[in-house]
Hints:
Elements: H1 47-64, H2 72-79, H3 86-98, H4 100-106, H5 111-124
Helix pairs in contact: 1-3, 2-3, 3-4, 3-5
Amino acid sequence: MSDVKVDPATHYDSDCVPDDTTNECSSSKRPRGGKRDKGKWVKCDESAAQDMTRCVHSMSDTMRSTHTNPNENLIKIIDDIEEYSLFIRLALQTSVATNERVASMLKGRPMAAIQEFGCWIGDNFPEYVPVPPAV
């Protein structure tokens, strides 16, 4: 047994006897150090990540419909329009997947008509146009 006197009222475990100088547990896994030594969690704006997560969920819902949707080719064409943001492409795909009138209007039209409809969505539904975060 060790020479350290342990007060039985404190109910220390046998493998956790306090040190003589610091009165801390010797089997602690946390490294010793003052509060100044601890790192701080950096807070950041998570809105961009949350927007992207919502966007991906919307995309998976939209893409799930392409297996049974007769307008699958139109949805794939919209997905290939890279000059528009992901939000506008998803809005277009959602419109095509949920509204047969929009799909029939765009089906067979040239790419310029589809792009014009994308501009219309961007102008009339600004919530689909991402705003860059302020630095």
